[in-house]
Amino acid sequence: MSAALTLDRTPPLAGLNVQRMNGAGNKILVLDLRGKGLASTADEARAIHRAPGLDFDQLMSIEDRRDPNSLAFIRILNNDGSEAEACGNGMRCVADRLWRETHRALLTLQTRAGLIACERLEDLVYRVDMGRPRLSWQEIPTSAPIADTRAVDICLKNEAAPRFPKAGLVNMGNPHVVFFVPDAKAVDLSLYGPAYETHELLPEKANVSFAEVLAPDAILVRVWERGVGATLACGSAACATLVAAARRGLAGRRARVILPGGELTIEWREKDDRVLMTGPVEFEREIFLTADMFAGVRAVT
Predict the structure, then answer these.
(1) Which partner from 17, 111, 135, 284 sits 20 to 30 angstroms from 93, CA to CA?
(2) What is the pLDDT of residue 86?
(3) What radius of gyration, in Å, describes the C-alpha atoms of the chain?
């Protein structure tokens, strides 16, 4: 049963420190809950996001491991409280925090998407094995069968909306829709991002990317992230974009993906079908979570 928090009830996360970081501009908070018997909730994530200086794209909660082959379980919450299966930029940030504790150059972490290997290449640069892309309509998923997910005609009901080229559909731990356009910067992301995120073809919603292929090894991308909105970077979207481009012959299997917040190097390995993402992390500051940040949050008792 639930009860409203009262003055004599300390919110579970109050008194903890959260690490504010970014991965190529993707705003990340890292919260270590190991050994505390806690798991961050949707309400708590939304409350933290509203607190001054704590707005984020993803909250990465480090929890006690569930799989003996992993170092920890990572719960990923978007700023609207929804839970994500994968976040490549956030995983690099978590890997950096755990490397400073363990000095292990290779870390295996678990998310809802499965086990993810993170490798430290140099100071503040990490490579994440994002796994194999899932490409069938059942895996993405879509609400209706699609024979070929490389180029799908996705229309909006608003007849006045522009007709974008056919989109590539890819699941990189979470669903992605990728439109290849002549000028990615010209697209009104705040208008068309949410329209396609919630399209009826996509029952689990989707991350929406507008990509401009600059060269076979360079792609400019702007992303509307499911449960977040317009973001400076999205690692899984960068991976999905490279896969979608390679499937269409628009780019090679390795490219620089240029996002508003920075660049990532994405490789879709032919030998084992796995997608590798390499990019930077930056530690900004540590912030103390106070009880007043959770005013109005309901706690489970």
Answers:
(1) 135
(2) 87
(3) 19
What is the tens place of the pLDDT at every residue in 262-295? 999 999 999 999 999 999 999 999 999 999 999 8
Active site residue 239: no
What is the rounded distance in angstroms from the CA atom of residue 76 to the CA atom of residue 40?
Answer: 9
Q: Where in the chain is the domain with CATH 3.10.310.10?
A: 2-131+282-300, 167-272
User: Looking up tokens 């993402």, which residue turns up?
Assistant: 277
Distances from the Cα of 79 to the Cα of 27, 179, 241, 244, 294, angstroms: 10, 24, 23, 27, 15
> Among candidates 246, 242, 222, which has minimal Cα distance to 234?
222
Q: Give the whole-angstrom CA distance, residue 66 versus residue 72.
A: 7
Amino acid at 65: R
CA–CA gap between residue 251 and residue 265 (Å, rounded): 13
Fold of 167-272: Diaminopimelate Epimerase; Chain A, domain 1 (3.10.310)
Catalytic pick among 87, 93, 118, 239: 87
Tell me the pLDDT tens digit for each residue of 14-54: 999 999 999 999 999 999 999 999 999 999 999 999 999 99
Answer yes or no: 93 catalytic. Answer: no
Write out the two tokens for 26.
């993707």
Residue 175 backbone phi and psi in degrees, to 5: -75, 140
Which one is catalytic: 93, 118, 234, 239? 234
Q: How many CB atoms lie within 10 A of CB 112?
A: 14
Is the pLDDT confidence value at 4 over 60?
no
Q: Is the dihedral of CA 94, 95, 96, 101 positive or negative?
A: positive
71-114: per-residue pLDDT in tens? 999 999 999 999 998 899 999 999 999 999 999 999 999 999 89
pLDDT band at 8 (very low <50, low <70, confident <90, very high): very low
Asked whether the beta carbons of 214 and 256 are under 8 A apart, the reply is no
